[in-house]
């Protein structure tokens, strides 16, 4: 079993154990994510690619593995998945830059706190 498969299996095992204690919450979570990630105005493949980008931006290892696998199972090509990585990287870089040119420059131009 690969590292990716092991990590996804461990998550699934643990969410199952969590569901033993709080079944209503776990069932509601699965219903919500299932409905959100299914075909709608956006197809399921596109939604998995979006989820992958978010997983990368939050540094969530399990979700990164899971959504890359799910995107592939929904028909995403390796090129589409790797392009998603580039888009997430650009968005994250843009976030750092936008905060740098606004908040940091405001902080630099403000008098020091005494």
From TrEMBL:
Pfam families from the UniProt entry: CMD (PF02627)
Gene Ontology MF terms in the entry: peroxiredoxin activity
Domain of life from the UniProt record: Bacteria
Residues annotated as signal peptide: none
Residue ranges of domain Carboxymuconolactone decarboxylase-like in the record: 23-100
SUPFAM superfamilies attached to this UniProt entry: AhpD-like
Database matches in InterPro entries: AhpD-like, CMD-like
PANTHER family for this protein: ALKYL HYDROPEROXIDE REDUCTASE AHPD, BLR3452 PROTEIN
Protein name, per record: Carboxymuconolactone decarboxylase family protein
Native organism: Paenibacillus macerans (Bacillus macerans)
Top-level taxonomy: Bacteria, Bacillati, Bacillota, Bacilli, Bacillales
């Amino acid at each position: 079993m690969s590292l990716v498969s092991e990590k996804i299996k461990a998550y699934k095992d643990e969410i199952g154990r969590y569901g033993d204690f709080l079944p209503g919450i776990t069932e509601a979570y699965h219903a919500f994510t299932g409905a959100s990630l299914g075909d709608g105005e956006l197809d399921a493949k596109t939604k998995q690619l979006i989820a992958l980008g978010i997983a990368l931006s939050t540094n969530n290892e399990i979700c990164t593995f899971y959504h890359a696998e799910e995107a592939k199972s929904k028909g995403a090509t390796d090129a589409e998945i790797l392009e998603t990585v580039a888009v997430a990287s650009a968005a994250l870089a843009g976030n750092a830059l936008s905060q740098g040119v606004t908040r940091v420059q405001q902080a630099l131009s403000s008098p020091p706190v005494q």
